[in-house]
Amino acid sequence: MANIFVALPAPAANGAGAWVDVSSFGALKTITVTGNGGVFEPFVTIECSNQNAPTAGFALKTFGFPAEQSFGVACHWMRAVVSNYRGGGAPTVEVGGTDDGTSFAQLISPAGDGDGAGVDVSALPPFKTVQIVGAYRGTVNVEVSEDAGTTYSQAFSSTNQPGGQSQTIAADFMRVSRAGTPKMDPGLPEIWIGATAGSGGGGGGIGVNVQDEGVPLANNPHPTLNFIGAGVTATDAGGGIADIDIPGGLLPVVTFSPPADSPPITLEAGKTNVISTTDGVQANFPLAASVANGTMLVVRLQDLTFNLIDGDITGQVPLFTSGSDKLDGQAPQYVNVIPDRVGQSLLWVSDGVDEWYLQADFEPNPDDFPDEQAFIQPLTGAENPDGFTVDLPTAMADTNYIVELTLEIVGSAPFGFYQAEVNTKAVDHIVVIFTDTPNAGDKLFVFIKEITGSPP
């Protein structure tokens, strides 16, 4: 057994690099992602595929910053997908592993509920990664047999979700079983298996190199991670993904509760700035040059009020830069934040020179607003400013709903107004008339609030 290495090409733009054949690798994949030296490192998602000729992949890991991490996955192809690109060169992605080699097989899925034909996989090594490709509805179970296909037991399962799952399992035969498949648009998924004997050694699978504030823990890598602490939850999201929910606390919190006509708030870098107001207040960024490149600042809006009947919103917060600093590369140097939901959080990051960038816009849990529905329409910048029609999803068209629309504009004052065309039965679409042409990347937020009676 020898170590082998390969590079995954990544574009200097948003998009996917070319697929790279990694079938000579075993399960161990040590991935190193190096940033492009820009103000913000782009996001790099590593995708895997077990198809003979790859047309779709499942996400193995998304790197938000330069890092190294090891995984256990048996796959035929890998590629790097870049997102959140803001300039600079292409990120560098390298993969290392062992030359154990990987074998492949395809299982046949039935068109509806029932069992597909069994496939002899007795020659396949024990560490297996099963990939489900293509849209489908219902539940797909991959079952194994140890008695030449006489009896089967479920080993892998996924519902309505393509993806990949891995585990060490010896099997004589394998087959696909479907359940809960609708008659209309059932889809027909492809199921591909990668298998290798190289599971990373030690019989416990492949561990993770864990760091505490950048300092590696003793006895790395760790095959088991135990998440503890108040409010922390870990759940199986399916498709080989575990969701770890760590509520709040990522940055120290400072709270502002200013009365009406109070002096401007000075936001604090490196903290979550909670602004609690129903009267609205101005907030000022610190100088971008006063903090290090990459310093985060979160603005969280809460205790705001909305009047959905006449569209009046109270608690708007204009954010101003200091000196000649810019916001997201644009002037004028302020943005009037009209929150689309109480509890909305905006993550800003300093370039350490003269600019603050909007890095993320976090939505609160929609379960907190059971009488509201939301719809987001991305804008391309090519919309007709004299009348852009937005068709609402069928589930939002109802005689007991009215329309509230907000338009998120980053780096300039909000503009635009809307006309809601209401037919005799439902609010099924809106027509937006812009006072200025929107920019590519802007988003149109449509919110439907249930009220009593029919819309006006």
Task: Give your account of this protein's structure.
The chain is an all-beta fold. It folds into 4 domains: 3-102 and 204-238, Jelly Rolls, CATH 2.60.120; 103-196, Jelly Rolls, CATH 2.60.120.230; 248-368, Jelly Rolls (Sandwich); 371-456, no CATH class. 0% of the residues lie in helices and 44% in strands. The protein has a 6-stranded mixed β-sheet, with no helix packed on it. A hairpin with a 2-residue loop joins strand 19 (211-212) and strand 20. The radius of gyration is 26 Å and the shape is elongated.
Q: Give the overall form.
A: elongated
CATH topology (level 3) name of the largest domain:
Jelly Rolls
Low-confidence stretches: 200-206, 306-313, 363-374, 395-427, 447-456
Termini Cα gap: 73 Å
Strand content: 35-45%
Specify the number of helices: 0
Mean pLDDT, to the nearest integer, reads 74
Brief summary:
The protein has 456 residues and is mainly β. The chain is built from no helices and 40 strands.
